[in-house]
């Protein structure tokens, strides 16, 4: 099998509800957010051996994100995205991650407002 350098896991359009915003109505009402995550990690051993212990378990990452978002209260989109990015990069194998979160209907006449943060890991 040829050398595999990096796996890229994408979690697309994870739709959750949380408290996000600093206006009084935003502090009292759950709002929709749409989360997109990209996680890079070296997957050569998993690709060669087919051993689940050598693969990053994206289901565990996703469950941790769901719990944090749904149980949280956030004033700023930056804080929410930063928290999700920290969870996404929590595994020692992760070399890079990017998180974009959309807040639908945050602005009149716009489908959504989104914010992206990225992190390179050693």
TrEMBL record:
Q: Which residues form the Dihydroneopterin aldolase/epimerase domain?
A: 9-119
What biological process terms from GO does the record include?
A: folic acid-containing compound metabolic process
Give the catalytic activity. 7,8-dihydroneopterin 3'-triphosphate = 7,8-dihydromonapterin 3'-triphosphate
Question: Where on the tree of life does the source sit, at the highest rank?
Answer: Bacteria
* Keywords from the UniProt entry: Isomerase
Known EC number: 5.1.99.7
Pfam families cross-referenced by the UniProt entry: FolB
The Gene Ontology terms for molecular function here are: dihydroneopterin aldolase activity; dihydroneopterin triphosphate 2'-epimerase activity
Q: Which GO terms describe its cellular component?
A: cytosol
Q: What class of enzyme is it?
A: isomerase
The record's family statement is: Belongs to the DHNA family.
- The entry's protein name is Dihydroneopterin triphosphate 2'-epimerase
The protein's organism comes out as: Amphritea atlantica
């Amino acid at each position: 099998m040829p050398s595999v350098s990096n796996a890229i896991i994408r979690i697309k359009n994870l739709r959750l509800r949380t408290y996000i915003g600093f206006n009084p109505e935003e502090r009292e009402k759950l709002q929709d957010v749409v989360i997109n995550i990209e996680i890079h990690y070296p997957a050569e051993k998993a690709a060669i051996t087919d051993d689940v212990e050598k693969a990053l378990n994206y289901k565990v990452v996703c469950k941790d994100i769901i719990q944090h978002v749904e149980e949280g209260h956030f004033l700023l989109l930056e804080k929410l995205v930063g928290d999700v990015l920290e969870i996404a990069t929590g595994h020692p194998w992760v070399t890079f991650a990017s998180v974009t979160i959309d807040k639908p209907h945050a602005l009149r006449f716009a489908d959504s407002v989104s914010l992206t943060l990225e992190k390179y890991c050693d």
